[in-house]
């Protein structure tokens, strides 16, 4: 039994369709990610669920109830924006208490709940500060606290980490996931960052041009992309058209093939001869560009010891495990 | 904005905007109708229409002289402003960025000290003595420079910030240009459009300046606004034609300025 | 300091000279002469005379009343107008915005003449309203008339200043508030208005200063016969009656003082409100 289910949802802006038939369902307590390039409709879908953008047709069921006719005020949905959207005239405490104030929660109860949720995001020392006195990461934690305090049925996160720098981003995504698990909160997270999606989600909906291209857990999406777009968006797949693939593997192949760079083995001897064109150091991984039978492949090798490095121009042998090859549409 | 698109709120906002437009339009419309009415007194609508007031106006030598003198004074004041303000802006933003704070206080003075107040001092200081200027266009040119200053300074500052003066100068100098070459060949061309807009808008409000012109110079070098005021006892139709001609002129200027402005943002 | 910097400073000299001659020097002259009088030399004689004269006090009172009411009406209309401007389609918005821009130059003498045509004793609106029985009589050359006239030239300025201010109220705040359960009205009460307050106060102060210093409109309308501060000041330096530049200076100092006071109150109010970074 799904907790959230989106059925035949349609939306267009002044004649241009954003999406025409979106269907998906989410279980209670699940953390799902809408992943896709900018303009794929993921943020619009999120805003439709929140009620900030009216839909043209279809249903959105939340706990069995169609929420499309409800105003955002009545949906019981919490949302965190990329731009934080903190009210600048209120302190951290007042910002967090705002939703409770709108629900006319008594001030004793409200104070207690605000303190609890600030504890949860580790910001109790900042209760009296104004938003402009906080860093970006702190602002986003306040925004998170503000949307948690009203105990929403569903939490929406619209690229909440995109405006932050890398280190804070990593820390905050762990914090978000921990809190979400602790509260058992059904959450939809929107991002264009594949790494974020893979690390955080129970399930990922990969979107492109207004369609859900593929859905599944991180492992499925990474190991078995359904089409060229999925393969191109996740990981650094080598994408070969049928002709090139046939030439490389020396057998007739009728579909496009995706080869993950870390599944190709490099050694000094073997039947598949190639030449190292160049390499770049990505930290724990060395990425080689190798030419083999007139095809250029990217090959990732774990960076174990400096002595293992192959020089540019060196002849090498490749091993391609046919079980890791992936046919894509 | 998406939720406001539909239904009754749309109608409310549209009617407010139209009402605002009508309120702003009404005095102009009244003047326009009056200027083409053959006669109009003690009735709601005029009795007939004619263009004779315009032909009378545009063949009046005193009007043409006032128009020319206004043009001359405004153009001269703006040339002076550019000569004085451009180097100032460049020096402030390139060499002494801290002076910008001081300048922002100084340019408040023309706002905080109304022309009537300045006139009191100007009349006494330059009415006689070594700097005798009262009654000549020279004093107007100087005063109009102070009137245009705050606006020009702000407008060009915004422009300078938008083009990132320091990086442009550094890049030009690394490519071998001297400070002068960099300023003239790189910075100035990039400011041209912003400068044009600032000049056109300044011109349109200087052209309507009355206080300095009336108190300091009066009929000794009659500008358009002073002429208009002095014509108060002649036919109202004649002055209306004058008002409309003046407004059309300013309208064209502001229109060109908006057009340039829009072009720049695209 | 390097030679380049000295040269750069040299570029500032012409500007400084002109600014001093046409802006600073007249102001200093006024300040000095406000505390001098023909009869009693240095001292506060001018100010004492002003504050004991019903005539001068009336001028100050008229100036304040007209400025206050016209700024209030002007800002209310500008708030309603610029808020609605943001809500209509862009073609209408751009058109009315550009028109407001142009009419901001329509003030002073031409505006006074236009109002005489519409609202003078024989103005077409006056006659229309009289015939409709809404008013008995209307005197444009009175305080009420001047308040209407001033309000008119405050509106475009108000719209010009306030329209961008509404940018400060971001759409995602409204969305956030609505998800947290706030109605549109609650949003404006708790977030929108508090955020806009500094801009509203600032605009009100600018309108007030604009009206306090206005001379051309009232001069053209009443040929200098209505008793407000700028008219009094000008009359004593360029009028046909008794000239008294020292007295004019004292009145001018009061006018500038009023404007400074308004600005200081504004600054104080701003400091009491919170600060928006950005």
Automatic annotation (TrEMBL), chain A:
What keywords were assigned to this record? ATP-binding, Nucleotide-binding, Transport
Q: Which domain of life is it from?
A: Bacteria
Organism, scientific name: Pseudomonas psychrophila
Transport: is it a keyword of this entry?
A: yes
- Would the keyword Methyltransferase turn up in this protein's UniProt record? no
Q: Gene3D superfamilies per the record?
A: P-loop containing nucleotide triphosphate hydrolases
User: By its UniProt entry, which InterPro entries does this protein fall under?
Assistant: AAA+_ATPase, ABC_SmlMolc_Importer, ABC_transporter-like_ATP-bd, ABC_transporter-like_CS, Mo/tungstate-bd_C_term_dom, P-loop_NTPase, Transp-assoc_OB_typ2
A Pfam family that this protein carries is ABC_tran
Give any GO molecular function from the UniProt entry: ATP binding
Name of the molecule in the record: Spermidine/putrescine transport system ATP-binding protein
Give residue ranges for domain ABC transporter: 4-234
Automatic annotation (TrEMBL), chain B:
Question: Keyword Nuclease on this protein?
Answer: no
Q: Single Gene Ontology BP term?
A: transmembrane transport
* Keyword field: Cell inner membrane, Cell membrane, Membrane, Transmembrane, Transmembrane helix, Transport
Q: Domain of life here?
A: Bacteria
The residue ranges crossing the membrane are 65-90, 102-126, 138-156, 168-188, 194-217, 238-260
Q: What is this entry's stated membrane topology?
A: Multi-pass membrane protein
Family assignment?
Answer: Belongs to the binding-protein-dependent transport system permease family.
Q: What is this protein called?
A: ABC transporter permease
Q: Which organism is it from?
A: Pseudomonas psychrophila
Q: What is the lineage of its organism?
A: Bacteria, Pseudomonadati, Pseudomonadota, Gammaproteobacteria, Pseudomonadales
Automatic annotation (TrEMBL), chain C:
Gene Ontology annotations for the cellular component aspect, listed alphabetically: plasma membrane
The family database entries (Pfam families) matched by this protein are listed as: BPD_transp_1
Alphabetized PROSITE patterns for the sequence: ABC_TM1
What keywords does the record list, in alphabetical order? Cell membrane, Membrane, Transmembrane, Transmembrane helix, Transport
Q: What organism does the UniProt record list as the source?
A: Pseudomonas psychrophila
Q: What is its main location?
A: membrane
Tell me, what is an example of a GO biological process annotation in this record? Answer: transmembrane transport
Source domain of life is Bacteria
Q: Where in the cell is it found?
A: Cell membrane
Output the CDD domains linked to this UniProt entry.
Answer: TM_PBP2
Every ABC transmembrane type-1 domain range: 60-266
InterPro entries listed in its UniProt record:
MetI-like, MetI-like_sf
What is this protein called in UniProt?
A: ABC transporter permease subunit
For whether the record's keyword set contains Oxidoreductase, the answer is: no
The text of the family note is: Belongs to the binding-protein-dependent transport system permease family. CysTW subfamily.
Q: How the protein sits in the membrane?
A: Multi-pass membrane protein
Q: Mind telling me which residue stretches traverse the membrane in this protein? A: 7-32, 66-85, 106-127, 147-166, 187-209, 247-270
């Amino acid at each position: 039994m799904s907790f959230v289910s989106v059925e035949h949802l349609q939306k267009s802006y002044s004649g241009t369709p954003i999406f025409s038939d979106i269907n998906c369902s989410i279980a209670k307590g699940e953390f799902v990610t809408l992943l896709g390039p900018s303009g794929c409709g993921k943020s619009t879908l999120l805003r439709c669920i929140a009620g900030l953008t009216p839909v043209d047709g279809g249903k959105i069921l939340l706990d069995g109830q169609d929420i499309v006719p409800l105003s955002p005020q009545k949906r019981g949905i919490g949302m965190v924006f990329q731009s934080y959207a903190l009210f600048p005239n209120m302190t951290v405490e007042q910002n967090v208490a705002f939703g409770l104030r709108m629900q006319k929660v008594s001030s004793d109860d409200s104070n207690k709940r605000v303190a609890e949720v600030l504890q949860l995001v580790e910001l109790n020392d900042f209760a009296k500060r104004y938003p402009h006195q906080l860093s970006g990461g702190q602002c986003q934690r306040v925004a998170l606290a503000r949307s948690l305090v009203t105990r929403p049925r569903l939490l929406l996160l619209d690229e909440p980490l995109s405006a932050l720098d890398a280190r804070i981003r990593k820390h905050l995504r762990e914090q978000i996931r921990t809190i979400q698990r602790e509260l058992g909160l059904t959450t939809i997270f929107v991002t264009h960052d594949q790494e974020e999606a893979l690390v955080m989600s129970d399930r990922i909906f990969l979107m492109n041009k207004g369609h859900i291209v593929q859905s599944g857990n991180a492992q499925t999406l990474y190991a078995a992309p359904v089409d060229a777009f999925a393969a191109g968006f996740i990981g650094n797949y080598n994408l070969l058209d049928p002709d090139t693939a046939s030439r490389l593997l020396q057998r007739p192949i009728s579909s496009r093939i995706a080869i993950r760079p870390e599944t190709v083995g490099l050694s000094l001897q073997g039947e598949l001869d190639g030449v190292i064109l160049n390499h770049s150091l990505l930290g724990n991984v060395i990425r080689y560009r190798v030419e083999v039978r007139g095809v250029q492949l990217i090959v990732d090798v774990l960076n174990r010891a400096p002595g293992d490095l192959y020089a540019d121009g060196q002849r090498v042998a490749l091993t391609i495990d046919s079980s890791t090859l992936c046919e894509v549409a | 904005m998406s939720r406001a698109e539909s239904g009754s709120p749309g109608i409310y906002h549209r009617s407010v905007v139209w009402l605002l437009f009508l309120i702003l339009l009404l005095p102009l419309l009244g003047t326009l109708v009056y200027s083409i009415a053959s006669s109009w007194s003690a009735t709601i609508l005029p009795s007939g229409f004619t263009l004779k007031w315009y032909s009378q106006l545009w063949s009046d030598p005193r009007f043409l002289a006032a128009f020319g003198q206004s043009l001359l004074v405004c153009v001269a004041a703006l040339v002076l402003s550019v000569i004085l303000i451009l180097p100032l802006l460049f020096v402030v933003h390139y060499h002494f960025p801290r002076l910008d704070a001081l300048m922002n206080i100084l340019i408040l003075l023309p706002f905080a000290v109304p022309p009537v107040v300045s006139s009191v001092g100007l009349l006494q200081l330059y009415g006689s003595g070594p700097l005798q200027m009262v009654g000549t266009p020279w004093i107007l040119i100087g005063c109009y420079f102070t009137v245009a200053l705050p606006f020009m300074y702000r407008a060009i500052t915004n422009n300078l910030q938008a083009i990132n003066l320091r990086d442009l100068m550094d890049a030009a100098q690394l490519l071998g240009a001297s400070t002068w070459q960099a300023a003239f060949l790189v910075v100035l061309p990039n400011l041209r459009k912003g400068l044009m807009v600032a000049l056109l808008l300044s011109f349109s409000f200087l052209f309507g300046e009355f206080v300095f012109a009336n108190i300091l110079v009066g009929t000794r070098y009659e500008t358009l606004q002073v002429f208009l005021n002095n014509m108060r006892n002649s036919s109202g139709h004649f002055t209306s034609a004058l008002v409309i001609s003046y407004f059309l002129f300013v309208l064209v200027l502001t229109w060109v300025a908006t057009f340039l402005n829009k072009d720049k943002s695209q | 300091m390097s030679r380049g910097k000295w040269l750069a400073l040299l570029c500032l000299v012409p500007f400084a000279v002109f600014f001093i001659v046409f802006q600073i020097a007249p102001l200093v002259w006024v300040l000095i002469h406000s505390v001098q009088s023909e009869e009693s030399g240095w001292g506060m004689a001018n100010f004492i005379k002003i504050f004991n004269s019903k005539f001068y006090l009336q001028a100050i009172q008229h100036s304040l009343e007209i400025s206050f009411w016209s700024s209030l009406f002007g800002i209310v209309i500008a708030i309603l107008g610029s808020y609605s401007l943001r809500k209509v389609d862009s073609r209408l918005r751009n058109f009315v915005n550009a028109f407001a821009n142009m009419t901001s130059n329509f003030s002073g003498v031409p505006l006074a003449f236009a109002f005489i045509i519409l609202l003078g004793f024989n103005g077409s609106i006056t006659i229309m309203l009289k015939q409709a029985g809404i008013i008995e009589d209307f005197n444009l050359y009175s305080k009420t008339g001047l308040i209407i006239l001033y309000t008119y030239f405050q509106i475009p300025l108000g719209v010009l200043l306030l329209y961008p201010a509404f940018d400060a109220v971001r759409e995602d705040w409204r969305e956030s508030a609505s998800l947290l359960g706030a109605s549109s009205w609650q949003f404006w009460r708790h977030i929108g208005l508090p955020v806009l307050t500094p801009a509203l106060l600032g605009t009100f102060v600018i309108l007030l200063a604009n009206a306090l210093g206005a001379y051309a409109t009232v001069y053209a309308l009443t040929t200098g016969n209505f008793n407000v501060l700028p008219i009094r000041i000008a009359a004593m330096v360029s009028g046909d009656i008794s000239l008294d530049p020292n007295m004019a200076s004292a009145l001018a100092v009061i006018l500038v003082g009023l404007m400074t006071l308004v600005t200081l109150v504004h600054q104080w109010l701003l400091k009491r409100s919170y600060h928006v970074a950005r």
